[in-house]
Amino acid sequence: MTGAVQVLDDAQRAGLAALADTLIPGGSGLPSASAAEVHGQWIDRALAARPELADAVLAVIGTVPEPVAGLGWLADLDRSLADRFTFAVAGAYFMNPVVRRALGYPGTAPRPLLAAPDEAEFYLDDDVLGPVLARGHVFRQPPEEPAR
Q1: How far apart are CA 83 and CA 63, in angstroms?
Q2: Is residue 145 part of a domain?
Q3: Is 146 within the bounds of a domain?
Q4: Mean confidence (pLDDT) of the chain
Q5: Each residue of 92-104: pLDDT tens digit?
């Protein structure tokens, strides 16, 4: 598993599975979050891609009231934390190829740009690009980053 980082222990993964199922219970041909293994390799990959979300995931898992009755308490507690947690869980869920296939989403892949015949003429008919072409090339040097 290239690029994956494990930040959760087994108990935290079990807590994440319960929370993730509250967020994504499954149905209509889609698996629940735990059935899609969000709490396993997929959260590891999501956190490898966005390591700044690890603190939010761990914080939420650490503040779960027992038993998990929903995530309304989380949004009331800290909306920003709730947003980051749900973003991480949803990202992990949609990384799973089983979920993407069930949705009919093939993932990102290069696709050739197919321009319609005479499409360029359509945009040039009203001289929409005239002012841009008349202006000529414009380039501004980006500002220097301050030294850290």
Answers
A1: 15
A2: no
A3: no
A4: 85
A5: 999 999 999 999 9
